[in-house]
Amino acid sequence: MGFASIHDYINSLDENEKKCVNEFVAFMKTEFPQIKPKICFAMPMWWTGAKMYNGYVAISAAKKHYSIHLHDENYLLNMQKVLPNCRFGKNVSILSR
Fold first, then answer.
1. Regarding predicted confidence, which is higher, 11 or 50?
2. Tens of pLDDT along 21-51?
3. Distance (Å, whole) CA 71 – CA 58
């Protein structure tokens, strides 16, 4: 499904998903106001450079989990130490509901 904006993406979610994704969007807006979000691969994404592979963070809400996608695999390795209840894959952490 394609979304024209972050607002469209959030409006497609159920109430619990909206709450969680809105909290992440608000965090990004507060902590990194210079990075403007966009829809990429059908999810909200914040690019740190002119191209996606200059660095990014994204969030997606799935049926039974949330995913936070990061460009920096070393950052994910550090996150694994402090978030032992999350599952991790390449460039993504899975936060179970």
1. 11
2. 999 999 999 999 999 999 999 999 999 888 8
3. 9
**Domains of the chain: which residue ranges?**
6-96
Contacts (Cβ under 8 Å, ≥6 apart) of 52:
40, 45, 71
Cα 3 to Cα 10: distance, rounded to the nearest angstrom: 10
CATH of domain 6-96: 3.90.1150.200
Question: pTM for the complete prediction?
Answer: 0.76
Spatial distance between the Cα atoms of 35 and 31, rounded to a whole number of angstroms: 9
CA 97 to CA 93: how far, in whole Å?
13
Distance of CA 73 to the CA centre of its chain: 15
